[in-house]
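Record 1 of the preview.
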Amino acid sequence: MIEYHAEDGIDPDAVLHTALETAAASGVMQRADIKVRLLPSEAILFGDGRRSFIHVTISLLAGRTPEAKLALAEAMTTGLRATCPDIEAISTDIRDMDPFCYKKSLRSPPPA
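->
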């Protein structure tokens, strides 16, 4: 999930593409399992006066090494900085999901 606020806007397709490609290239997850969502924040207030941000929250099933998660977080932040050089604050947080409690249901594709 990518939350953001930028008074001058962002290029949503570029941000989504950067996040998807960075995650897929990391080797931490399978491309087919990646879902990228972009959520605008209506307003922000930073104590240090910054006026724009992108914050990425990556939820992974538990079991990845700390080194793999760190490499993914650094790659994501670096990739988004290259895509959005004018954004004042870019951050990435990786969360472990409990595989026992995570459940998913996919609808079968319609017959051809």
